[in-house]
Amino acid sequence: HLVLLMALKENIDSSIINLLAKNIESLMFYYAFNRTLTKYYEDTFAKWATKLRLVDTIQGLRDFLKEDFKKEFDGQLLAFNLRFATKNEMELSPLPRIKYILGRLDNYVRVSVNFQPFNFAYYQGLQLEHILPQKGENIPKDNYPKEFDYDNTVSKFGNLTLLEAPINQSLNFSNDISSNSWFEEKKRQYL
Asked: Is 107:118 a contact under the CB 8 Å cutoff?
């Protein structure tokens, strides 16, 4: 993605650089989540670089973003929306990618409520937590008739969060899910 920023003219206004960088970062999030092959977007970026070399105003960049960039962005957003509910941990591996995606989502929420976003190095230092425990005990057969039903639910993206190591380790006792109280207990530990 640096090829796009480097394609801009030397001494270009910083507002143009910042706007392009923000849009690239959003697109890269969708590429990461959708597991878009690097060779695909490198080819796309190389084509865009020739157009970006001509940009010298903020309006010129906005025009570029409305045309080529928007089409690509909308396609990635659609793929994200279609796959979000069904993605699981294995499909999003490796772990740094999962932490990046969860960190981006967390920062989106933080900014939405006027909190300062965290640096992404912060998220890489956290541990991956499965809200519904990986090794559940006394699993209710009504909810999970087969073992793979439970395993499938545990690995879903919506069951994942990031926690500091001490908090994550204190939750190991919350594996008995035979009653509804396990989640209430786990929420108290999270907070």
From this structure: yes
